[in-house]
User: Fold these one by one.
Assistant:
Number 1:
Amino acid sequence: MRLRTAALVATLALGSLVVPLAADAQQAGKVPRIGFLYPVSAALASSRTEAFVQGLREFGYIEGQNITIEWRLSEVPADRLSELAAELVRLKVDVIVTGGTPAAFAARKATSTIPIVMSSVGDPVATGLVATLARPGGNITGLSLVSPDLAGKRLELIKESVPGLSRVAILVNLANPIQKVVLGQTEVAARSLGMQLQPVDVRDPRELESAFAAMAKRRAGAVIVPFDPIFFSNRRRIVDLAAKSRLPAIYFDKGYVEAGGLMAYGPNIADLARRAATYVDRILKGAKPADLPVEQPTRFELVINLKTAKALGLTIPQSVLFRADHVIQ
């Protein structure tokens, strides 16, 4: 089940031309084996896998030469994630790198001894994955996707961009533990801004059409789409449904905006995947996950699609455009 995108293979081929640095963690004759568990397809995860491979290369690790990576990339339900995590444990990998909160939980269920590096999870403390950010404890550490004020910032941006906005829907997958945390944070932010929040729970892609129909029926003026593997895997469909419903939407990841969504505000997830290689290197050199603090994002990207804004009849204020990192004309 070793999946690779053509882009990833090409990247590795270029990497083979580089003379690798000696990785201190390698024992004589032993090549470290890394498991990479992500519940989206290889094509959709390509920017993140390439970033992770680039991060490893910066520490002198070249796949096929002095490191082996067991890729487990597939759009699967939570119970299948547990099977894939158990498979990586049977392969006796040295480290498991996960993407998304469900994958981190699957890896933790599969092993309490193999180090786990989270490359992109929601709030690992609130969901119980780690004890604290500073001292995670156990066999898990890595990078969080969220910061305390992220939900409020996203609401402020969409409110500032949509005149007279008072009712906002939020797409949530409450089967994903982090979604309950995100929903709670967004509810607090909505109250502080005098807005009515309308949660719509979607746990299966087949529910997306009825979800947007419910938003229209409840007269939502916009929709928030937070990070979730199910949503990301169906981002083009979600963008199309938002356009069909004439609902301005703010997303977590710029991939939605590149697919035609209105705007996105969040961390650069590919950069988080690259940073995960730092944790892998330190663990291979003897560090314990329990002693490596979990990082929170400090840089966020605002991406706006003006073509989509025009189609919705919106004029994005200059005060918002000035803050944008990238504007699609």
Number 2:
Amino acid sequence: MTKIDLLAIAPHPDDAELGCGGTLAKHRALGKTTGIIDLTAGELGTRGSAPIRLREAQTAAEILGLTIRENLGFEDGFFTQDKATLLRLIAAIRQYQPEVVLASALRDRHTDHAKGAELIKTACFLAGLARIETLHPQTGQPQPAWRPRAVYHFIHDYLLLPTLVVD
């Protein structure tokens, strides 16, 4: 098991880097374990392509010194908050047992950012319910319930008043 102290979860490759990359780098420099889970490959993006974005994500993971970088492969633009999607994300949260999750903004111009934030927030809560059964993606073993201590949302596009700033 790889326990992650600070886990960013975002809809597209590059969202976490742009929204909280400095926070991830700072905490890594302080000796914390860090990681990013991308929900999609960003295949609908108008800048670049999914293969390019995935290569860039891997390079960013190396630069940031991430412990893990994973892509859940949900469909860009069309992922939904349904049971199957939630269970995959809950399993990932339980697999890495993050203390803190950094998620995309709850309100944003890009619909994937806002609906991704709601999905992440819901999955973090549900991951703590013992009656929801998930299996570890690699071992197939039942996973214990796990809820992050905190979920914080990082700003994307809209100018929002932050309630927490990391220097």
Number 3:
Amino acid sequence: RAARLEEWAEDLERAVAGGAPRDPRLAALGDTVARRRLDPDLFRRLVEANRMDQRTDRWATYEDLVHYCAHSATPVGRMVLGVLGYHDEWRGGLSDATCEGLQLVNFWQDVRRDLDERGRIYLPAEDMTRFGVEERDLHAAPAAPQVRRLIEFEVERARERLHAGAPLARLVPRRAGAYLRMFTAGGLAIADAIAARGYDTVSGRPAPGRRGRARITARTLAAMLRGRA
């Protein structure tokens, strides 16, 4: 996998340099990068995120985890802004907050699944120590009180990032703004679902469900209609 990733990275460099990549999809990407003036480093950061995935399964600090998000999540939001024609740091910062919040809340939603299926713990080691949580506690269902307190702490961090990025929806075209509102509302709904389970994501994976998603859609559309009026 590592060798295939490096081949892809080399082909990406050919594409963004205006050369002739082997993969026709990257040829199309190179054209979009040029026409939309996208920063090639955004794509390099995604490649590096995949390298990180192959060598890292624990994070020492929250700052380390945010650094990972800066490679695996925030480049995507900035790519979208670039396609829409926005390259300013103001919108970029709001996009970063949204993407970080979405990725973080998904980490806290999948604490047990990430550990069981991928051997990963995204909960920062410093926070686990602070709340008195050990790795074996993440295997024990229902979640112990200290695990619930830790996950509550992390969920509130994700909420803060989602709220911080929410104004971006008013600074892009209406259709893009609608998608952004849906993403933010969806992330907050996951946070609410985790809270409703008492912050126990060891016993199961909290999710808004079909009805919850329908409510998110209805509320987003209603908010847009109010804004139009």
Number 4:
Amino acid sequence: MIQLIDTSIVNVAVPHIMGNLGANTSQASWVVTAYVFANVIIIPITGWLSEFFGRKKYYLISIGLFVIASVFCGQATNIWELVIFRFIQGLGGGGLLPTSRVILIENYPPEDLSLAMALFGMGVVIGPTIGPTLGGWLTTTYSWRWIFYVNVPVGIIAFMMAFINVEEVGAKLTKARSIDGWGLFFLFMGFGALEIILEQGERDNWFASNFIVWLTAISIIGILAFIVQELTTDNPVVDLYVLRHRNLAVGTFFGFIMGFGLYASVFVFPLFLENLLDYSALQTGLILIPSALTAALMMPVASFLMRKGASARLLAAIGFGLFFVFSWLMSHQSLQSGASDFYLPLVLRGMGLGCLSVPINTIAMWGLEGHELNEGSGFSSLSRSLGGSIGIALVSTFLDQRNALHWTRLVSNITRFDYTARSRINEIVHFFKSSGFSSSVAQSQAYQAIAGTVTKQAYMMTYNDIFLAVGVLFVICIPLLLLTTSADISNEDTEVQMQAE
């Protein structure tokens, strides 16, 4: 959970970091980009690193690196120091997510796999949701440096508990494969460039920037070369053949969609509340809490139902459906909406994520063991991370383009020949005149007021479009559940499956 909190906790503190370290917006954006960039390049090779060091050792190394880098982030004296330590923090944090999941799976009996996935899913969903709230509170109450220091006590406790309780399983694994240097190089080249494109593209106007064009070429060449290298070498750093398992392939895709929806909604909802309804960051965070709590409460329920024989497909379908209802309700909000209008949609969102996370994780990891378990966990975590990055990038671009379209359409209806528009402008002019302004100033103020109203309405319509588009994406996934090979993951089915293997 602390790893995922750090993907979003910094966002609300960026203005404070800029002022304190004397950085501009472009420089400060790398504080966010560096962490996600490190995550994306380390997650695919966590399986290999677990074999090379032993899973417990690698897990402890990841926790230690994350905590130490957090301390140095808090001590940074300039923006580039902070960027470097955020990158190192991301290298440590990136290893925590897939390794945590594998440790849970190996320490729970097969019939309790859904319970392990419920525990894992709580962190996955709660982390990104409470990150902005926690970041806003720490930054406002103390300083931006405390968004990094808060990791230290939690990390130390996690390190001690893992050291005492987690067993080393490296001896049970096959001997670690030799280093695939070209594979690593192409991985860093392809996915690293892709992540920078997703983080910087919207700011640089995408392909209008030569920098983005070159990065796109580098990313395509790197990813294609990586795939060819991993499919042809005897010792791949990432075993792509593990995707021959249909459940893992489909579950990885669903993880991508869930990451897309989770991060896109967490990204766009605060913008809606803070930019249009004038909520503070803390107020926005408090409104999001019921969603996180509902998701946390729903996951053990989903686990219990699956252990009693409920269909993983059915639960996932319900989750996709609930997330669509959340999106549909949010697509019908207005500038007059208040906090009470958001509770039901957000509770449904939490229930949907709770129903989705457990079956999707269970389906993806179903039937994997040993070396394949490591690789599968890495793929699943990478897909969610990429889904989140792509979701935020697409939503940011869609926000600008769709807003321009709505603004143009609304303005085209405001002319001197339109009776309603003319009457409204005259009312505003009379208001300013009665307040003591001259005719010319009152006229100018009236036009500014109308322009502000149109801008807000255009943004409101854009946010409605975004929520609806995300909801439709989730509905489309429901028929794809039929591609999975295991619908019921109950005690009896699990025991039969294990005996057959």
